[in-house]
Amino acid sequence: MTSDKMQWWREARFGLFVHWGLYAIPAGVWNGIINSHSSEWIMNHLRIPVSEYEKLAEQFNPVDFNADEFVRLAKDAGMRYIAITAKHHDGFCMFKTKYSDYNIVDATPFGRDIVAEIAEACRKHDIKFCIYYSHILDWHHPHAVGNDWDFKPSLQDFEIYYREKCRPQIEELLTNYGEVSVIWFDMPGGADKFYTEDIVNLVRELQPNCIFNSRIGYGFGDYVTMGDNTVPLLNKEGDWETPYTLNDNWGYNQLDNNWKDPLKCIDLLTNIVGKGGNFLLNIGPDANGNIPEGSANILREVGEWMRVNGSSIYGTQGIPTYPIDTREIRFTYKKGTLFMHVFNWPKIPILYIHHLMNKVSRVYALANPDIDLSFSQGTTDTGAHYVRVDLPNEPTSKYSSVIALDIEGMPEYDNINF
Ligand code: FHN
Question: Is residue 187 lining ligand 1, measured as CB closer than 6 Å?
């Protein structure tokens, strides 16, 4: 791994995940039965036979799909990359492939290559194009891992699936769609290390600048993908990312409107970024090709915030964990500027940053960068450092106001065990 190819990703910090496939049709309900797990797992959880589930392809006709709209929504939200499910665990391919007829072009009335259209729109709107590919689980292929209701595991030979479908499709994806910035693998268990190593070599050979995540398996990966919807408690070294979904499903679910509101999204974004990670936020388009209005509106609101405060996100790096437990303030940091995200504006507009030792040269709100805020620094009787900032009377942004402090070096805090 050269660090150069990670550079755009470290700068980006915020991306859009799109889980879209045939599972958008049942959308969580199969013949009146409500699936209690995430909607893209419906085939597995209800043990739906391939012969029944694959008929969904005949109905899949997302005529409202407009790749430009998808990409513009991400871009307006301040996201810098998009990862779309080219093949999820159900085995259906959202791209034209020679290695399975079970694909969007050959098996559906829609007949358009969705991955290709997203790739083109990403290039047009200058946003990084990334592909999700389920490399081990494939419930449609008789020799892949995962489907024990149609196929007998004792008769399965992963090698056959790998040669017939997985490997050549990764080759197609990294050959036919221009530059792929990330190939995002998932659920690595169940196959020998040989296959992971072979994929690593294949990706390196076909697109040396394409990065891939740790869910490729066996300790490989240009960066670590944390568990779904999890944030580490403390600052975490190295390159890492957290995938989060906007409601409680990855794929579209007609019964799930449990959206995280813009405030929660901004809280997660600043929490993750402040600890050194990237935030990959997921939406699930419906079977007609629409992004549910609920999720689109939230992304738009986040985008409004990003337009003013994005410089506290892009290109930031993890910093030592602030030693005081506060949920109302989060910190991010970039090259000599500490950004303080104030979620709860104090009635008396004064804020103390306890224990910050660095010399501060200037303080201002990102929303009003031309107006300096007054501040002072000192130590308490016990020798603890503090910075006092005199805030404007009102918050400077909706959701979270960002106060920038120009400081010398990386943030350093008192040892609070004195
Ligand atoms: O099983 C998948 C799930 O459907 C979804 O794709 C998430 C996204 O990170 N990954 C797996 C579970 O970790």
Answer: yes
Residue 230 contacts residue 244 (beta carbons within 8 Å): no
State both tokens at 212: 């891939």
pTM: 0.97
Ligand 1 contacts CB of residue 408 (under 6 A): no
Tokens encoding 287 = 């079977």
Stretch 63-82: mean pLDDT: 98
Q: Check pocket membership of 243 for ligand 1, CB cut-off 6 A.
A: yes
41 CA: nearest ligand 1 atom: 4
Cβ of 113 below 6 Å from ligand 1: no
Distance CA 343, CA 138 (A): 43
Which residue in 130, 99, 134, 98 sits closest to 115, CA to CA?
130
What is d(CA 380, CA 19) in angstroms, rounded to the nearest whole number? Answer: 52
CB 216 within 8 A of CB 188: yes
Angle at Cα 310 formed by Cα 292 and Cα 353, nearest 5°?
Answer: 120
| Whether 375 contacts 387, CB under 8 Å | yes
Distance 191 CA to ligand 1 centre (A): 17
CA 285 to CA 25: how far, in whole Å?
Answer: 10
Token output for 43: 């085939």
CA–centroid distance, residue 178 to ligand 1 (Å) = 25
Q: How many other β-carbons are positioned within 10 Å of the β-carbon of residue 154?
A: 6
Q: Is 250 in the pocket of ligand 1 (CB under 6 A)?
A: yes
> How is residue 227 written in tokens?
């568990």
Q: Ligand 1 mean position to 406 CA, how many Å?
A: 40
Q: How far apart are CA 294 and CA 286, in angstroms?
A: 12
Residue 3 is predicted with a pLDDT of 59
Task: Report d(CA 107, CA 21) in Å as an integer.
Answer: 13
Q: pLDDT grade, residue 2 (50/70/90)?
A: very low
The rounded percent of the chain whose pLDDT value lies above 90 is 97
